[in-house]
Design a protein that fits this description.
Blueprint lengths: L1 E6 L9 E6 L8 H10 L1 H12 L12 E3 L8 E6 L10 H18 L4 E4 L11 H14 L7 E6 L2 H14 L1
This protein binds adenosine-5-diphosphoribose (APR).
The site of adenosine-5-diphosphoribose (APR) has 25 residues, from strand 2 and helix 1.
């Protein structure tokens, strides 16, 4: 599995699947969630409404991953995963964040995706410390038994975020 670290806007990537750092409502929001819905258009929101209608309690769960089409986006699928809200690291946040990455990869594999792009899940509004989150993201992706997925892109929105990933990758080599 090839890992790429880039700085950019995940809505522009023509990978098979992009991952959305969603909330449990799964009907859009701010940050990357807002950017993805704005770029994908109404069709994505309509599909999310149908998705939500089929879920118990009409809501997603933190750590789970939900695949939809991509509306007007250049990718084929959007995988919506509600990340954990960071409190103090003592409430299972790390395990839930790892589940976001592993469950998103499972959804991608179910569609035989060859490439997937992740934003820095939970490190914006949800307040997850960036370095700890990046370390969990890299470890979870590297440990995943991928069959169809051959390329994982960590799409950071700032070069500072990308530098965190690059430094962690360099340290692990
Ligand atoms: N492309 C890539 N990354 C982006 C983009 C974009 N277009 N826009 C924002 N980001 C980055 C942020 O800079 C941050 O590094 O995505 C990362 C995740 O930040 P948030 O989007 O705030 O997501 P999160 O911290 O997981 O909080 C989720 O925020 O936006 C709401 O609806 C969302 O309620 C949910 C919560």
């Amino acid at each position: 599995m090839n890992i790429e670290i880039i700085t950019g806007d995940i809505t522009t990537l023509a990978v098979d699947a992009i991952v959305n750092a969603a909330n449990c409502g799964l009907l859009g929001g701010g940050g990357v969630d807002g950017a993805i819905h704005r770029a994908a258009g109404e069709a994505l929101l309509a599909e999310c409404r149908t998705l939500v209608a089929g879920l118990p309690k009409r809501r997603g769960e933190t750590g789970q991953a939900y695949l939809t089409g991509a509306g007007k986006l250049p990718c084929k699928y959007v995988i919506h995963t509600p990340g954990p809200v960071y409190r103090d690291g003592e409430h299972g946040e790390a395990a839930l964040l790892a589940e976001c990455y592993s469950n998103s990869l499972k959804r991608a594999e179910e569609k035989q995706c060859r490439s997937i792009a992740f934003p820095c899940i939970s490190t914006g509004v949800y307040g997850y410390p960036k370095e700890a989150a990046a370390s969990i993201a890299l470890a979870t992706v590297k440990a995943f038994p991928a069959r169809s997925v051959q390329k994982v892109v960590f799409c950071c929105f700032s070069s500072a975020d990308a530098d965190i990933y690059k430094r962690l990758v360099a340290q692990s080599e």
